[in-house]
Amino acid sequence: MADSAASQLNQEDDIERLQDQVNLLEQEAQKISNKLSNDGFVSRAPAAKIEAEKQRLEKCQNLAQHYRERILSIVRG
């Protein structure tokens, strides 16, 4: 029984940690998205910078999705 309780706590800790990461990644993705939506930024920034920001956005979104899937796999057991 103690092992089951410890396992449950570990799972809850993992879910909380992963959700914190998802939240941070979503915040970062929103900042990047706002930057890319800013006509002033897009008109002045070099194409390489814009492409780098797009790649950062995609990376944040993909990693957040990966963490969400891990949370679901923990919840489903």
UniProtKB/TrEMBL annotation:
The keyword ATP-binding applies. The keyword Transport does not apply. Pfam families: Val_tRNA-synt_C (PF10458). One of its GO terms (cellular component) is cytoplasm. GO terms for molecular function: ATP binding; valine-tRNA ligase activity. Residues 13-71 form the Valyl-tRNA synthetase tRNA-binding arm domain. Residues 8-70 form a coiled coil. Keywords: ATP-binding, Coiled coil, Nucleotide-binding. It comes from the Bacteria. GO terms for biological process: valyl-tRNA aminoacylation. InterPro entries: tRNA-bd_arm, Val-tRNA_synth_C_sf, Val-tRNA_synth_tRNA-bd. This is Valyl-tRNA synthetase tRNA-binding arm domain-containing protein.
